[in-house]
């Protein structure tokens, strides 16, 4: 089935909230997700297959800086290239917005996500000590320079 990458909408929020619960130990609330919907400061795209949202990525941007806030793929749909398709679209949007760089935080132990980002040229640039809760863990700061 074909994968459709499109802007997130208000009527995706119930599914996005459900996916947060499936993918994260400290899930975002509906309100937080709502605040990330596409506008002049946010890119938020979803990957849809057969009418079902299977993944999403959100980025906040200010001036020429982008910050990836959230990336998730349904556990049942992982390792099929959906995460890669989402990051590719996000970076395409970031370039179209003329951003200079995109940055993000990721749990130090999150090898799948770190490998995904590294594949797109994100490099480790720093560490935020005890940034995450449940469990407490350092965040690795990664950046991709676009220009
Ligand atoms: C990280 C995540 C989004 C990856 O999504 P995905 O759709 O499974 O990723 P893809 O199939 O597109 O994989 C792309 C590449 O990422 C890397 N990768 C993905 N999953 C991996 C795993 N379990 N182990 C090692 N590398 C992995 C590989 O380099 C992979 O390329 P390959 O399949 O050709 O080897 C997904 O695992 C997820 O939702 N995790 C939970 C939420 C999360 O941690 N989000 C990131 C927060 S910062």
What's the short story on this structure?
With 147 residues, the protein is of the alpha+beta class.
Commentary on this structure:
The chain is built from 4 helices and 7 strands. The protein is an alpha+beta fold and 147 residues long. The chain has one domain (3-145): 3-Layer(aba) Sandwich (Aminopeptidase). The protein is globular. The model has no long low-confidence stretch (mean pLDDT 97). The protein binds coenzyme A. Coenzyme A binds next to β4, α3 and α4. Coenzyme A binds at residues 23, 71-73, 78-84, 106, 110-113, 115-116, 119.
- Could you tell me the radius of gyration in angstroms? 14 Å
**Ligands (ions, cofactors included):** coenzyme A
CATH architectural label? 3-Layer(aba) Sandwich
Q: What is the terminal-to-terminal distance?
A: 35 Å
Helices and strands: which structural class? alpha+beta
Low-confidence residue ranges:
none
Helix fraction bin? 25-40%
Mean pLDDT over the full residue set: 97
The CATH topology: Aminopeptidase
Strand content: 35-45%
Please trace the helix and strand order, writing H or E for each element: EHHEEEHEHEE
Domain count: 1
State the CATH class: Alpha Beta
Shape: globular
Largest sheet composition: 7 strands, mixed
Order of strands across the biggest sheet? 1-2-3-4-5-7-6
What is the CATH superfamily classification? Gcn5-related N-acetyltransferase (GNAT)
